[in-house]
Amino acid sequence: MSTSSGTPESWISSFCSLLGHEYFAEVSEDFIEDDFNLTGLQTQVAMYKEALEMILDVEPEDDDDDDDEDDDDEEDASGDGRDGPRAHGERRHNRVASDLSVIESSAEMLFGLIHQRFICSRPGIQQMSEKYELGHFGVCPRTNCNQTRALPVGLSDIPGVDTVKLFCPSCLDVYVPPNSRFQTVDGAFFGRTFGALFLLTFPEYDLSRSGGESAANLGRAASADDQINGMRARNIAPGLGRGKIYAPKIYGFKVSEMARSGPRMQWLRNKPEDVGELDEARYFADEHAESDDDDESMIAGHGRPTTRRRQAGSGKLRRGQVQNGSPMAVEANGAESEL
Amino acid sequence: MDVYGSESDSDYTSYWRDWFISSRGNEYFCEIDEEYLTDRFNLTGLNTEVLYYQYALDLVTDVFDLDCDDDMREAIEKSARHLYGLVHARYVVTTRGLAKMLDKYKKADFGKCPRVMCNSHPLLPMGLSDIPNHKPVKLYCARCEDIYNPKSSRHAAIDGAYFGTSFHNILFQVYPALVPAKSAERYVPRVYGFRVHAAAALVRWQHAQRADLRRRLRRLDVESGFQDAESDPDGADEDDEDPDANALDDTALTGAAAGAATVMQMTMLRNAAAAAAAAAAHPGSVA
């Protein structure tokens, strides 16, 4: 899908096929060509226009001073700005090698930032879900997560802060990718939003499909399709809770938590026996304190109307009403138009 | 027993153990002392577990001098590796074994915790079963107290029984100073900066659990081991905790909790199962 460059492969697909770039989705050119999607990126990327041309495989134009051009082309960088250089392609001069490498790195930065926005859009998140199903992002290293497939996320939306991490939907924790080649990939190219948004966009994914033990993990009252806090009950951290917490033992005896070396972190891998307990809104409605009693078993059937009532109160009625299908589809749309 | 003077086959020269621990994929093993291997008491019961037990032992101790064909050789070699692993599980809980494994732990020979919030804390190898050929080796992180699969498939194929279920816990009983400070830092899923309700509710619940734990420990006058102040990166999460959670900062362990009171309070522990056994092994307790 290369434009006028004549190379067999577009810059985008060659970038995505580089070693270490396996997590990237191929951002569609339509997405990049829509100026709206690039709002604010001019200020974040040096040599913005050249970088954009490189991403879109447009022949670079080299006849004007860079700074002036950047200002001029802010509005029409992807409109006229793209056609212009193509027409004047033959006027291009040889760029200095160092210049090219600067543009190349700018292009990578720009592409990454566009990518961060793209994977939160509808076509982008769709593409990522295909990659997810193919297992492109690897699996959670945690033993009790049973090879749950992970999602690439960043811990910051600002480039240069941290590298890409893997978010495990089963234990809701983040891990360093096993292969060191991913330690050169900026986390901001995926962003903080994608991991959580993915789970909200595709609530029907069976995250706990590795084995029937997930069924045992469910609360008695919560049936598989019950919704709690806007997620399917069985998809709320299926890798946590009883039976999924490591209990240290010495010669078969549990190490007491009174010991200096006793367990201190089990809360991190814990979850209520009955996930219905997490329905804080219902507790509030029933005028109970949130941490009132862990053992109190609740009937999920009671929870739903209350939840809905509360959602209605907070203006989220439409979300509550969508019972089948994706309740978050609305939000996905919202996300898209936000870009 | 004279070892280094043995006249073993030329291609399988002496120092079988040197070769074994330095060969690829065996990075998790430490070298077992000669004296330990040659003390029959330490090998009690292994002769029924290992084929060609005597030959395998001879090979491990570098006194092997049997003339046999390659198939036999291969079988004995395999047995020797199995034997070494089983003795290894016993050796690493001895004083010398612990010290050797501690060195490797400090050098992070077993890898580093993949969990981001653990900041590459070194791992320890462990088994989920003490019976051989049941479960492959896993890696234990003392900071998040969870177990992880080894990155490399070479390591993932090692039998967990070669390290055992107790070793890593014994290590921290013996060297309590090495127990890393625990951190309440954790990842909170967000969408455009907003916490996701389902996950945030779980986080709040977990934080309440942690507050409970710290309250229990404070009541028992036991050091909780958490980093002094609650160090959540986003202070917003702290709002969700019980107001006194922050007051639970660790008071220094001053020992001397009255035994009777301790027993009474123990009944208050919610997970009573955890209470019994290892309290005795608790190094700081005077009870």
Write the layout of secondary structure elements.
The complex is a heterodimer of chains A (339) and B (287).
Chain A: H1 11-16, H2 29-33, H3 48-55, H4 66-72, H5 80-87, H6 97-118, H7 122-133, E1 151-153, E2 165-168, E3 173-175, H8 193-201, H9 213-217, E4 227-228, E5 231-232, E6 249-250, E7 253-254, H10 280-285, H11 300-313, H12 317-321, H13 329-338
Antiparallel strand pairs in A: 1-2, 2-3, 4-5, 6-7
Chain B: H1 16-22, H2 34-38, H3 53-60, H4 70-91, H5 95-106, E1 123-126, E2 138-141, E3 146-148, H6 153-156, H7 167-174, E4 190-191, E5 194-195, H8 197-219, H9 259-266
Helix pairs in contact in B: 3-4
Q: What's the Cα radius of gyration of chain A? A: 25 Å
Largest sheet, spatial ordering of strands of chain B: 1-2-3
* Shape, principal axes of CA atoms of chain B: elongated
Taking the sheet with the most strands of chain A, its summary is: 3 strands, antiparallel
Subunit structure (chain A): Tetramer of two alpha and two beta subunits. Tetramer composed of two alpha chains, one beta chain and one beta' chain.
Organism (chain A): Trichocladium antarcticum
Region (Disordered) (chain A): 60-95, 285-339
Biased composition (Basic residues) (chain A): 305-319
Give a concise summary:
Chain A: Belongs to the casein kinase 2 subunit beta family. The complex is a heterodimer of chains A (339) and B (287). With 339 residues, chain A is mainly α.
Describe the structure.
Chain A: Residues 79-88 have a biased composition (Basic and acidic residues). Chain A: It comes from Trichocladium antarcticum. Chain A: Tetramer of two alpha and two beta subunits. Tetramer composed of two alpha chains, one beta chain and one beta' chain. Chain A: Residues 305-319 have a biased composition (Basic residues). Chain A: Belongs to the casein kinase 2 subunit beta family. The complex is a heterodimer of chains A (339) and B (287). By secondary structure, chain A is mainly α. Chain A has helices spanning 11-16, 29-33, 48-55, 66-72, 80-87, 97-118, 122-133, 193-201, 213-217, 280-285, 300-313, 317-321, 329-338; strands at residues 151-153, 165-168, 173-175, 227-228, 231-232, 249-250, 253-254. In chain A, the strands form three sheets. In chain A, strands 1-2-3 form a three-stranded antiparallel sheet, covered by helices on one side. In chain A, β2 (165-168) and β3 (173-175) form a beta hairpin. In chain A, α3 packs across α6 (97-118). The radius of gyration of chain A is 25 Å and the shape is elongated. The two termini of chain A are 24 Å apart. Residues 1-5, 63-93, 211-222 and 292-339 of chain A have low confidence and may be disordered. Chain B has 287 residues and is mainly alpha-helical. Chain B contains nine helices and five strands; from the N terminus they run αααααβββααββαα. In chain B, the strands form two sheets. In chain B, strands 1-2-3 form a three-stranded antiparallel sheet, with no helix packed on it. In chain B, α3 (53-60) packs across α4 (70-91). The longest helix of chain B is centred in the C-terminal third of the chain and has 23 residues, at 197-219. The radius of gyration of chain B is 24 Å and the shape is elongated. Mean pLDDT of chain B is 79; it is low at 1-12 and 230-287.
